[in-house]
Amino acid sequence: IPETALKLGVPNAGSLLPHLTLLVHDHPKITSSFLEKLQLYDKHGNIQCVQILDGVTMLVGAKDRAGPGNAQQAIVLTARGKDVVTRIIQATAPLRRYLKAKGDDNWRSFLLSSGKSFGYPSPIKNISGLFIHPKNRKNLSSSLERQGLDRRSAESIAERLTLATLRASIGVRVYLDTGSVHAMSEALGHVEFNPSLLDHYLPLQVQRIFRERWIRIFQTSLIIEAVKGTDLVLEASGLSSMQELDEFLSHHAFKRLDPLVDGPADVNDREIAFGISTGILALLFGLQHAVQNATKAVCGRAQYWALVTDRIVDYIMAPESG
Hints:
52% of the residues lie in helices and 7% in strands. By secondary structure, the protein is mainly α. A three-stranded antiparallel β-sheet has the order 1-2-3, with no helix packed on it. Residues 256-268 have low confidence and may be disordered.
């Protein structure tokens, strides 16, 4: 019976979890309780939780612990988020029609399930419980293996994945990318900033490592800025050789181009993204200055980065780049 329900596309207790995972991945402000309380229709049969304003689609619902003035939360959906919401509505439509015909007011709920297979439709009220259910964890692990992941990694992810852990991971990633707990708080949709927020996600020892690293990077940038345009840049940066400088720039100047969700399938491979910061620019300009004023043969790595700097300067100074 469960296999038949799966082939017919009947939304059971676990089939909506991949949709919810994608939705929270793109919109980490969304919590499990937010989704559990969503009402697709109001008492008069009008669409309630999905609203369109000036061409922008929003998911509107109640936010717990936000206080009376912030009880309503509107999430602006990405193109993929909008698609996921549409798919959930389409998948649950048969259950909604059945409940409405029975006079059951639960037909208005956004998330509906038919139980294990063909049970009486009901709203999903415990998303976290579904994620940790042994059967759903096993299904997720098997699915990840089919996508090429080794068994141990697949089982590890399935064992730990919930919407709460996913939001936590995204929040920590924002912190590591920005070094800002404020940015992390904003990404997670917190109404008020809590200085101790990070303590819930990262051990103090790990926080200390990253804070010290950012301080060292900032201090190095200041030193490089102070001696730019001189032959002392390499020495001031703390890098002892051209090989170390080449490795540093390769890791910190080049940035990977992320695939565009709504962009063309093929990305122009003649384009490359650079992470431009004061420290990186000062280092590149200092290296360029040293190459231009060299009195003896310059190694290939130095010539390469000097040429890269020429191209970056030309691009920045070009009229069309602003």
